[in-house]
Amino acid sequence: QLHLRESGGDLVRPGESLNLSCVVSGSTLENYAVGWFRQAPGQEREGVACISSSGDSINLADSVKGRFFISRDNAKTTVDLRMYYLRPADAGVYYCAAALAPKGTYFCSAFWDLNDLQGYGYWGQGTQVTVSS
Predict the structure, then answer these.
(1) pLDDT value, residue 10
(2) Which of 8, 12, 50, 123 fits as disulfide partner to 108, beta carbons 3.0 to 4.6 Å?
C-alpha cells in the first residue's frame, strides 16, 4: 500500500521561505502523479500544485505561481514544494496526495483543475504552515 508523509511545516514571517517534502513509501513513485493541497481553518481545501508521474507536466495555482515550485525525485521517492516570499494568505495545513497515473496518462496536464480531488487515492497527514508577524 502507498503511504505519504509530509514534513517541513513551520512558523515563518511574511517574505520568508519554506521547503516542504513529501516522502512516499510502500510502492514505486514513478507511476503516481502527486499534488499539494492546503486548507486554512474553516475553509475548503484548495489545490496548490501538481506534477505528473513523469515530471513533464506541472501546474501551479495562480495565487502561488512565480513563488512556489514543485519537483520530484523518483529515486529518492520524494516530492518537494519550495515556497518563497510567503504571505499570510499562504498559511494552512499542507497535504500531499498521490494519484495512480502511469506514463502516458494526462493527469496534471495543461489547464488541469487543481481543486479536483478525484483520483487522489492516497493522502498524507498534513503539515502546518503558519505565516505571521
Answers:
(1) 98
(2) 50
- Cα dihedral: 98, 100, 106, 108 (round 10): 0
The C-alpha atoms of residue 60 and residue 90 are separated, in whole angstroms, by: 14
* pLDDT, averaged in runs of 10, over the chain (133 residues): 96 98 92 96 96 93 97 94 98 97 82 90 97 94
CB 9 within 8 A of CB 127: yes
Starting at the edge strand found earlier in the chain, the sheet holding 3-7 runs 3-7, 18-25, 78-83, 68-73
pLDDT at 21: 98
Which of 82, 97, 98 is CA-nearest to residue 39? Answer: 97
| Residue 23 CB neighbours (<10 A) | 17
Q: Are 6 and 35 in contact (CB under 8 A)?
A: no
